[in-house]
Amino acid sequence: MNTQVIADQMNKDFVLAVEGLTVSFDGFKAVNDLSFYVDENEIRVIIGPNGAGKTTVLDLICGRTKATTGSIRFKDRELTTMKEHEIVRAGVGRKFQNPSIYEDLTVFENLEISYPKGRSVVGALTFRRDAAVKGRVHEVAETIFLADQLDQRAEYLSHGQKQWLEIGMLLIQDPELLMLDEPVAGMSVSERKKTAELLNTIIKDRSVIVIEHDMKFVEDIAHKVTVLHQGKILSEGSMAKVQADPKVIEVYLGH
Amino acid sequence: MTQSGRTFFLRPRDAIGIVILAVLLLVILPLALDNFRLQFVGKYLTYAFVALGLVLCWGYAGILSLGQGVFFGLGGYCMAMYLKLEASSVENTKIQSTPGIPDFMDWNQITSLPWFWEPFRSFGFTTLAVIVVPAIFAFIVGFAMFKRRVGGVYFAIITQALAAILTILIIGQQGYTGGINGITDLRTLHGWDIRTDSAKTVLYFVCVGLLLACILIAYFVKSSKLGRILVAMRDKEDRVRFSGYDVASFKVFVFCLAASLSAIGGAMFTLQVGFMSPSFVGIVPSIEMVIYTAVGGRLSILGAIYGTLLVNWAKTSFSESFPELWLFGLGGLFIAVVLLFPNGIAGLWQTYVAPRLGPLFSDKPKAAVRTAATPPASPSGPVAPAAAE
To answer: What is the count of structural domains for chain A?
Structure first.
């Protein structure tokens, strides 16, 4: 009982506590008895070879995939039993691997939809584009370098700009836990630099989980690195520690 | 433009479009056509309500329903039940073995009015039922399917099946529904004879008035944030879900709205044509209604109205001379629209005509061209990474 109390108190300090998480697809365990903890304001990078289960972990946290067993606690709320939109409303934001934006809408409208107000049917019908909404959209557009493209249909943006727009859509939600799936993939060198800059500004005052392959980028931003391999944690710790780990070199970095 | 935050939900060019349509329907057509032809237009316009619902449901939200005839029929039958009860007063039916019930019930050896017919003695209840009954039905169907994330072609097939089922049910339950003949011999509304020419003219104007009101409702929905969420859902359903929206409830809403709009059309059909039968409920009429929308332009509220009028006008003129060829013509038309101009008449207007009329009528030219060239509503979600990565 005593240990239970201690464990509970430990859990409370973490923004996210993943424990014993397993998901099995027809017997194949994509994530196998995984446990990890993310602190407040921590930037956690998940790396690992293809098929290690990185994206599945994010899918599990945001409710897109249902866990077979295990628990995911976010600020003392159990996420595994919640619906996707409830998890978002609880404060978890997720960016997809490919830019996932609404091509038929303008940049302004893309950001406006992500503004955390009027999320019910009635709310959306009566939603008014007031000064607060406009101000916030402009502020975010400024941050993501798209202030002069607000009236542009999103399909005309470049690949990098689309990634920024999606990051902006998350930013306007102001989530406490932000999950980014390969935010710099497919970007040119200059776009990548700008994105790193952008991420450095938006990750302040929130916890972030990032999946990334770009080691230079990981080094720049990570507080702590988790290496996944075949659905399990291979190594965890600071970038230097992980890079020196012979197991990690063998399965991942050595390639 | 988009940032200016219109305080009014109609853009100037939408308002102009509605006024032009109103003048056409309320002034030009009544003056230009004789009573007989005007009644035809009135009948066509009842289908325009369905097309309007399909623009919101299919065009904007990407939910293709091949069973809108179900809702058209439910609305029409609700109205027909009221009118039939009024026509079946005791003195009108004294030769029956059970006077006071509809004639087809008497023929089917039914001796008392079924319980679910009883409330349709009240006109207030009937009016409410026309809108609410189809909405409840759509809610049950929509809730069951959208919560389970049934969508795309599966949803279309299920709605199609519903149209078939309801037709079979109506035909099979002859004693309660009038069977294959439908509910016929409707005479008066609150004692007002709806069979006279003057009554039909009045009903035509009522129908136009209701249609214009429904068009305004559709524009209001389209221009609200809900309208933009529907478009967003059509494009990237998962992104909307992971922006904190319960996607299913928005789909249920738009499906119910489309159902209620269709039902108003059905009720106006019964009033103007004077009967309702299963032939307006089944698969064929449901698909025809989708074709009206496709020809007019599934992304255009006004386009769908013109599409309905044009296709029906063509149907009437064609089937007067070549009745057996009409269905082939309709099928050919549908294929041509899908292949050659996926955004229908409205798409052609946006691409070729509107840019010549100046900035009041057109979007930025680049956007207009692209809109016409890219058919939306691809059901593919975002990324969908393989399960393990």
So the answer is: 1
Measured between alpha carbons, how far is B227 from A129 in angstroms, rounded to an integer? 14
Mean of the pLDDT values across residues B59-81?
A: 96
Dump pLDDT digits (tens) for B175-193.
999 999 999 999 999 889 9
CA–CA min distance B224, chain A (Å): 6
Q: Is residue A17 a part of any domain in this protein?
A: yes
**Hey, are the CB atoms on A151 and B241 less than 8 Å from each other?**
no
* CA gap A228, A242 in Å, rounded: 11
Q: Which residues contact B50 (CB under 8 A, 6 or more apart)?
A: B68, B69, B71, B72, B261, B262, B265, B289, B292, B308
Inspect the interface and report whether the beta carbons of A88 and B2 lie closer than 8 Å.
no
Tell me, yes or no, whether A148 lies in a domain.
no
Which chain A residue is nearest to residue B221, measuring alpha carbons? A125
**Statement: residue A251 has pLDDT above 90:** no
Pairwise CA distance, residues A16 & A22, whole Å: 16
- Residue spans per domain, chain B: 23-285
B268 DSSP 8-state letter: H
- List B residues 344-363 in contact with A (Cβ-Cβ < 8 A): none
Note whether B384 contacts A: Cβ–Cβ < 8 A.
no
- Please name the residue of chain A whose CA is at the shortest distance from the CA of residue B368: A153
**Rounded to a whole number, what is the distance in Å from the CA of B133 to chain A's nearest CA?**
20
What percent of chain B clears pLDDT 70, i.e. is strictly above it? 91
Which residues does chain A have within 8 Å of residue B5's beta carbon, measured at their own beta carbons? 129-130, 134
A163 domain residue, yes or no = no
Dump pLDDT digits (tens) for B131-190. 999 999 999 999 999 999 998 999 999 999 999 999 999 999 999 999 999 999 999 998
Check CB contact of B110 with chain A, cutoff 8 Å: no
Residue whose token pair is 């798209």: A146
Q: Chain A contact for B2, CB < 8 A?
A: yes
Please state, for a pLDDT cut of 90, what percent of chain B lies above it.
Answer: 75
Determine the longest span between alpha carbons in chain B, in angstroms.
77
Q: To the nearest whole angstrom, how far is the Cα of A207 from the nearest Cα of chain B?
A: 18
Domain of A87? 2-104+174-253
**A44 vs B115: CA distance, rounded Å:** 65
CATH of the domain at A62: 3.40.50.300
Residue A34 is assigned to a structural domain of this protein: yes
